[in-house]
Amino acid sequence: MLKALIFDVDGTLADTEEAHRMAFNAAFHDAGLDWYWSAALYAELLAVAGGKERLRHYWRQTDPHGPPPPDAVIDHVHALKTRHYTALASALPLRPGVLHLIHEASDAHLPLALATTTTPANIDALLRGPLGSDWRHLFAAIGDGSTAANKKPAPDVYLQVLAALNVPADDCLAIEDSHNGLQAARAAGIPTLVTPGTYTRTQCFDDALLQLEQLGDLAALRRWHAAAFAEGSMT
């Protein structure tokens, strides 16, 4: 029985990755770095979860034999990036079907949760427009980059949300857009629906319960979840 929906944020609730890429490049300019992340390069860098982790990874690529990047520099560039991203995110629409699904689930008293490793500021910038400034009241649990010890594909944020919901993993459905997110949810034992975004369409989703171009209605999600277990397709 489906007892909770757990949403990823970036790429799942909204197609955010291009805004992230633009924000990184603006931050590089502000910081005086001669870096530029093309769309193709950024698609590769998305294999590294977390903005700061992505910056460190790229720094090591550009200077493999040099010293590791100072934390203060990484923090500074990431703060600049967050400032640019929050300005861009406030104008981003939610993906088709997302708003309807959130309101339908809320009206049906089905608990909703967020399991993301992005920052609280990024989540607020994205959701306060379409869901209102009090958007947090729609979610029974929120796990984010400030609370998860390890980023996806580690299951930490999902385990944290499951504990807050106090619902068995098998009775939840995670909704993700990326391979890293799918791996994180499955490592926590949660059946997962994948709705790929612009930057993740070519990734592997073999472990997904279902793959959809966009989200449908709550009744359909309940049927898919129940059918998967009735057929023994998820363990």
Write up this protein.
The chain has helices at 17-30, 39-45, 51-62, 71-89, 98-107, 120-131, 156-165, 179-187, 218-230, and strands at 4-7, 112-115, 141-143, 172-176, 192-194, 210-211. By secondary structure, it is an alpha/beta fold. The protein has a six-stranded parallel beta sheet. The two termini are 15 Å apart. The model has no long low-confidence stretch (mean pLDDT 93).
How does the SSE layout of this entry go?
Blueprint: E1 4-7, H1 17-30, H2 39-45, H3 51-62, H4 71-89, H5 98-107, E2 112-115, H6 120-131, E3 141-143, H7 156-165, E4 172-176, H8 179-187, E5 192-194, E6 210-211, H9 218-230
Parallel strand pairs: 1-2, 1-4, 2-3, 4-5, 5-6
Described by strand count, sense and barrel closure, the largest sheet is: 6 strands, parallel
* Structural class by secondary-structure content: alpha/beta
Q: What oligomeric state do these chains adopt?
A: single chain
Secondary structure tally: strands = 6
Q: With helices defined by DSSP (H or I, 4 residues minimum), what is the helix count?
A: 9
Q: What low-confidence regions span 5 or more consecutive residues with pLDDT below 50?
A: none
- Percentage of β-strand residues: 5-15%
- What order do the helices and strands follow? EHHHHHEHEHEHEEH
Spatial order of strands in the largest sheet = 3-2-1-4-5-6
What radius of gyration results from the CA coordinates? 18 Å
The percent range for helix content is 40-55%
What is the global morphology?
globular
Briefly summarize what is shown.
This protein is α/β, with parallel strands linked by helices and 235 residues long. It is built from nine helices and six strands.
